[in-house]
Design goal:
With about 210 residues, the protein is α/β, with parallel strands linked by helices. The chain has one domain: Nucleotidyltransferase, domain 5 (2-Layer Sandwich). Helices cover about 30% and strands about 35% of the residues. Strands 6-7-5-4-1-2-3-8 form an eight-stranded mixed sheet. Strands 9-10 form a two-stranded antiparallel sheet. Helix 3 crosses helix 5. The chain starts with a strand and ends in a 12-residue tail after the last helix. The relative contact order is 0.21. The C terminus is likely disordered.
Length: about 210
C-alpha cells in the first residue's frame, strides 16, 4: 500500500480567514485479476482534515500550526508529503517562514492568477484560479474525492463550492469567486491547491469514489 499526503494552505488577509486542507492519496490492492494473475491496483483520494483558522491569526502562528500538521503522527508513515501554499499577496513572507521550518515535505509555492496559462518561474508556480476551481469541481462531480460525513467545515466547503461563480471582465478575462459580497472561498482554495498537486505528481485515481456529505 502506498500513501501520499497533499496539504493545501490558503492564506487569509485582514478580511479573509486562513484555511488548511489535508488530502490523502492511497494506492492499494483491489480485486484479483485472473487474466493478469495479480491483484488490481486501486487508488482513492480522501479529504482527511479541513480547518479554518480564526480571522486575524498571526502568520507566525499559522506557520506553527502548519508545521505541527506536517510533522504530526497522523501524517507519519506516508511515502511522501507535499505542502502547497498560496503565495499570492503577502504569501511570499509566509513561504519564507515555512522554508525555515522542518516540514519534512516538499513545499510548492503557488501564485494564483487571473490568467489562462500555468507557468513556473523563480521557484513559484503561477496557476490560474480557473484551473484550480474547475479542476476541483470536475473531481467532485466525478466522485473522485471522498469527503467524510460529518467532517468539521465539510458543510461550509460545499456551501462555498455552490457559491462559486465566474465573471467576465470588460477585457474578457474570467474571474472566479463567491457571487455574493462578503462570502469566502478559502476552504475551496485550500482543497483545490492540494488537489492541483495531486494532478501534478500522483497517478490518476483509477476507481471512482462516492462523495459523502
Amino acid at each position: 500500500m502506498r500513501k501520499i499526503y497533499f496539504v493545501g494552505l490558503d492564506l487569509g488577509q485582514k478580511q479573509d480567514p486562513t484555511a488548511l486542507a489535508v488530502v490523502e492519496w492511497l494506492e492499494y490492492a483491489g480485486a484479483w485479476d485472473g487474466v493478469a494473475y495479480e491483484f488490481r491496483k486501486e487508488t482513492s483520494l480522501s479529504l482527511r482534515h479541513l480547518e479554518r483558522m480564526p480571522l486575524g491569526t498571526p502568520y507566525p502562528e499559522v506557520v506553527y500550526r502548519v508545521g505541527s500538521t506536517m510533522r504530526s503522527r497522523q501524517l507519519a508513515g506516508a511515502e511522501r508529503r507535499h505542502l502547497v501554499v498560496d503565495g499570492t499577496g503577502v504569501g511570499p513572507a509566509v513561504v519564507d517562514l515555512l522554508r525555515q521550518e522542518d516540514l519534512q515535505s516538499r513545499l510548492w509555492p503557488v501564485t494564483i492568477t487571473g490568467g489562462d496559462t500555468e507557468r513556473y518561474a523563480d521557484e513559484y508556480y503561477r496557476v490560474p484560479k480557473r484551473d484550480l476551481i474547475v479542476g476541483l469541481q470536475v473531481l467532485m462531480q466525478q466522485g473522485g474525492l471522498q469527503i467524510a460525513e460529518g467532517m468539521k467545515e465539510g458543510g461550509t466547503l460545499m456551501k462555498e463550492m455552490a457559491e462559486m461563480r465566474v465573471n467576465v471582465t470588460g477585457s474578457g478575462h474570467e474571474q472566479f469567486g463567491a457571487w455574493r459580497s462578503g462570502e469566502h472561498d478559502d476552504l475551496v482554495l485550500a482543497v483545490a491547491l492540494a488537489c492541483w498537486a495531486v494532478r501534478k505528481v500522483a497517478p490518476k485515481v483509477r476507481r471512482p469514489q462516492v462523495q459523502l456529505v
